Fold this sequence. Notes:
- By secondary structure, the protein is α+β, with helices and mostly antiparallel strands.
- It has helices spanning 17-23, 25-33, 50-60, 69-82, 85-93, 100-110, 113-125, 127-130, 139-147, 443-463, and strands spanning 3-8, 11-16, 42-45, 151-157, 172-177, 182-188, 198-203, 206-211, 213-214, 219-220, 224-228, 233-237, 248-252, 255-263, 266-275, 280-284, 296-299, 302-309, 313-320, 325-333, 340-345, 348-355, 359-369, 375-377, 382-383, 393-395, 398-402, 406-412, 417-424, 432-438.
- The strands form eight sheets. Strands 21, 22, 23, 24 and 25 form a five-stranded antiparallel beta sheet that branches. Strands 6-5-4-30 form a four-stranded antiparallel beta sheet.
Amino acid sequence: MASLKLRVGDIIFSVDKTLLTENCEYFRALFQSGMIECQQEEIHLRGLSARGFLITLAVLGGERPILTCDDIIEAIECAAFLQVPSLAKHLINLINSNNCIVMYHTAATFGLMDLYHSSALFIRDMYSDLEEDLRCLPEELVEYILSLMPTTFVAVASHSPTNQLLQDSSRTLCYLDEEEKEWKVLTDLPVEASTSMAGVSVLDNKLYIVGGVRGVNKQVVDSCFCYNALTDSWSKFSSPQQLRYSLTLIGHGDHLYAIGGEYERRIISSVEKYQVSVDTWSFTSRLPRPAASPACAKAMGRIFVCLWKPMDTTDIYEFDVGKEEWFLATTLIREQSYGHCMVAHRDNLYVMRNGPSDDFLRCMIDCYNTTTGQWTALAGQYVNSKGALFTATVRGDSVFTVNRMLTLVYSIEENKWKPRKEMKGFPRSGSMQTFLLRLPTNSSQLTCKCILKERDHNVENVNV
């Protein structure tokens, strides 16, 4: 491979020319221009830091470096000047409460628009926590943040398809009104939709429901539905080639991934990906072994899945989206009794399980850091009455958990989750799935819609 000498600051780098042309629009345009620099033995990149360029090379080489705020500024400068999409994507994956303001301000300065928008969305979700720190920003940058829709905690209970004439008024999506600390109706489920043992995921602020069952015989549902929160409308989309229930659904990029599940009471290992832009499903690499409803989470843009081997072993596999391959990331050995779920925060994966000896009222949490490869057990025990912690959803530095009794929000700290606030429990019975959606910011519209839906439901109940 032809190497190229680049002087950045006081350092000379010898870099594969193909690597640069394939990943940097700046070098691609330079080498196609026929300019005199193309013939030089050494090219001088002026105005960039050697540290920023070193970070760029690390990302192009497949690394995922954790960056300080000073590193971030230099990396953004390189990403904008050299036009490196993979570096910009890595920076988006690094956004957290410690660096989001630096990310936002610097991205605005250098015109890295995807990072600018992603940072603004993150800040919007944590606005109350970061409001004091935002005083350092220009007024127009703060106004842009406030113009965005914050994410809202949304949940749906387990429902089978119903008859149009006997529409069940409880078949609804509900959202948490954090100001009034109670749950309200967002929209009705389509009569053909099933959320019983279905895959549910959000991608680009649209809710997707795949699979599920109807009836005690677990007849698989072959219709898939998408809810657009901005238009308050439902639509159908294509079904997977392998019908399934008890699957896990997760979104990444322009794709949904339907992972594992069951069909005709047989646990399967097949995985399909759905390309939203072309409404097409295709098979990808199978799970290392069959799994029903495997715990799954995304950490820094990477997909991780738990494959539980009762009673004491949990293997965590990473799915490499580019190579479409599964790799064993780590194994957790713990005495555990029943079930678990997994959520991600920064580069940490939190695996939740019941306490030993079938103690269903205690929840133990172990943390795996994907950067260091180390496991730690979180201090304390967490009340798990009626499965609250098995519906955990992360927003910013908070974890939302919910059951029929209460909605409990934790603050994620270094070695524990600290209870932050309590609100009313979810007003539906049975198991549930939770997620985040960006809803219209006009609260009066939501309140009006809530009142109308509750009125319609009451009328239906009176007529019945």
